[in-house]
Amino acid sequence: MTRCLNATAVVNCASEVLDAILDYPAYFQLKNTFLNTEGRFSAVASVLINSQQKYKNGLFRTGSFVENHDQPRLASVTKDSAVGCSYYFAVS
User: Fold this and answer.
1) Residue 44: CB atoms within 10 Å
2) Which of 13, 21, 80, 83 yields a CA-CA distance of 20 to 30 A from 60?
3) pTM here?
4) Alpha-carbon distance 6 to 90, whole Å?
């Protein structure tokens, strides 16, 4: 089994033994892209391509999500409502 050192590796390890998993690497990269003024969508694409190649079932059985109870909500970490609206529009 792959050694789990980062978010993609952890999900990759989990995808070997679970039928479906939450796509945390994409979640963190999307959040970083929208909250950082120098965020790049090419970094999001890179994470998605990397995930597709490494996960046992590609992205077919991943659960994409915008927020969950384990992470701070986007609105609580930015005062810019345009960022929040753009983020939710882009990922829905």
Assistant:
1) 19
2) 83
3) 0.69
4) 25
